[in-house]
TrEMBL record:
Residues 3-106, 120-267, 395-506 form the Plastocyanin-like domain. This is Laccase. Its main location: secreted. GO terms for molecular function: copper ion binding; hydroquinone:oxygen oxidoreductase activity. GO terms for biological process: lignin catabolic process. It comes from Gossypium trilobum.
């Protein structure tokens, strides 16, 4: 883990460069591919109104940017505020191709809290001694799970718990009695992460680029894909204090339980830190997970869009989706097992087409995808209970959820104990949705909706579905286009835990997809 690895990175930087903008800006980013294989870039959490062409997921909204070519993305910001991020959206390349998007208040707009004295972006990462694309390509060809990471990193640094040289630890220098805004991004491949700064209180102020009701905590829990804005005051005795991260898991096959460190260092202090002082919840501490996420609530500040949760009487599209890890016959010559890993939504394991779904939809090209994703699972069983004797067949396909512009949509995401069980961070492109409900066990459509929070549910773009439970989300389908929905555990997305949401055009130009740009990368078969 202390080795030097050759990685595909952006502008010779790991993490990649930070993009700093103001709310409501339109940004142009010209991506030159000087690597050896094609890839795309996704602007995670940016809703891109009517502009799916530049959303980025490979073979969903575009084909890859080929080596020795370039492509300019048009990024249209709207209501987002705070912190988002960008990352590659091809195979596992995002492991080394990622960076922060800092969205500052618009002109004449203020923070809904005292302006901090400084800020720091903190990106939590998975470290592999190897090329991310080669790692997943080898695993998929063999039909075996990809390996565990060799370490975790903070801003590209491994810290001092792995026996590596001390120059691999990230240091944040602070002044006494100053307050700092931490912009925390979980860019890890397959791991939710606890994060803390020893002896300091963290105040959460935003999640997924939307302000939340402020609350204090000794730690945060953040899922892959999520972002959190956190205030911390340097109000302790001058010294060096550890910041630390470790994974959380409720799976039967948990990740490696490494603790990675950084230093929260007061200016002009010289001295050491003691690793024995690091305290973080245990990796399997479900109570710590629940205690944290249950406190995330929307806040009615002028800097947030007015809360507009679809009411029960508004909902006209209900989708109930089960999440599962399955197996399928491994048929290629490199297989080392008879049945390889697959993952599914409602027993459909997603297959990427040879051209992007958006182009096929826009041009009415037949045979690329089907508009028949099931709105209910094909069979009902004790999803979170004993599965002895349950045989749940999975099929492969490129099947989309189709709704009309303006529909009021409710999606219930239900974990199952298929495979190793465990949580699933689900990300929906093109939207921020209201997280209205959650629970353990099997969702009950008669009684569980009565527990929904329809008063102040937070706006999210990535939501963690607990390993033995469910979550419910609601939104108005007011952004026409083709939008990817997938698990942000990369191994699950690679195995097919994905689908596509197609929101059909409305009746006006302002409610329809923007015209297809002439500069889109060509697909190999077009």
């Amino acid at each position: 883990m202390c080795n030097t690895s050759t990685l595909l990175v952006v502008n010779n930087s790991y993490p990649g460069p930070e993009i700093r903008v103001h709310r409501g800006d339109t940004v142009f980013v010209n991506v030159h591919n000087r690597g050896k294989y094609g890839f795309t870039i996704h602007w995670h959490g940016v809703k891109q109104p009517r502009n799916p062409w530049f959303d980025g997921p490979e073979f969903i909204t575009q084909c890859p940017i080929r080596p020795r070519t370039n492509f300019t993305y048009k990024i249209i910001l709207s209501e987002e505020i705070g912190t988002l991020w960008w990352h590659a959206h091809s195979d596992w390349t995002r492991g080394s191709v990622h960076g922060a998007i800092v969205i500052l208040p618009a002109e004449n707009e203020t923070y809904p809290f005292p302006t901090p004295d400084g800020e720091q972006t903190i990106i939590l990462e998975s470290w592999y001694n190897g090329n991310f694309k080669k790692i997943i390509d080898k695993a998929l060809a063999a039909g075996t799970p990809p390996p565990q990471p060799d370490a975790y990193a903070i801003n590209g640094h491994l810290g001092d718990t792995y026996g590596c040289p001390t120059d691999t630890i990230f240091r944040m220098e602070v002044d006494y009695e100053k307050t700092y805004l931490l912009r925390i991004i979980n860019a890890a491949m397959n791991e939710q992460q606890f994060f803390t700064i020893m002896n300091h209180t963290l105040t959460v102020v935003a999640v997924d680029a939307s302000y939340v009701r402020r609350f204090k905590s000794d730690y945060i829990l953040i899922s892959p894909g999520q972002t959190m804005d956190v205030l911390v005051s340097a109000n302790r005795n001058a010294g060096q204090y550890y910041m630390a991260t470790r994974p959380f898991s409720d799976s039967n096959v948990p990740p490696v339980d490494f603790i990675t460190t950084g230093i929260f260092q007061y200016t002009n202090f010289v001295g050491g830190s003691n690793a024995s002082l690091i305290t973080l919840p245990a990796m399997n501490n479900t109570d710590a997970m629940l205690n944290f996420i249950s406190r995330i609530r929307n806040t009615n500040v002028t800097q947030n869009p007015p809360i507009n949760v679809p009411a029960d009487t508004d909902i006209n599209r209900r989708v109930f989706i089960t999440l599962a890890v399955n197996d399928l016959p491994c048929k290629n010559s490199k297989c080392v097992v008879s049945d390889g890993f697959a993952a599914s939504l409602n027993n459909v394991s997603f297959v990427y087409p040879h051209i992007d779904v958006l182009q096929a939809y826009y041009r009415n090209i037949r045979g690329v995808f089907a508009e028949n994703f099931p709105f209910l699972p094909p069979e009902f069983y004790d999803f979170t209970g004993n599965l002895t004797g349950v045989v749940s067949a999975v099929e492969v396909g490129t099947r989309a959820i189709c709704v009309n512009y303006g529909d009021a949509v409710e999606i219930v995401l239900q974990s199952t104990q298929m495979g190793a069980g465990g949580s699933h961070p689900i990300h929906l492109h093109g939207y921020s949705f209201y997280w209205v409900g959650a629970g353990f066990g099997n969702f009950n459509g008669e009684t569980d909706p009565s527990t929904y929070n329809l008063v102040d549910p937070p706006l999210m773009n990535t939501i963690d579905v607990p390993g033995t439970g469910w979550v419910a989300i609601r939104f108005f389908a007011n952004n026409p286009g083709v939008w990817y929905m997938h698990c942000h555990f990369e191994r699950h997305a690679s195995w097919g835990m994905s689908t596509v949401l197609i929101v059909r055009n409305g009746s006006t130009i302002e409610t329809s997809i923007r015209p297809r740009p002439s500069t889109m990368p060509r697909c190999h078969r077009t």
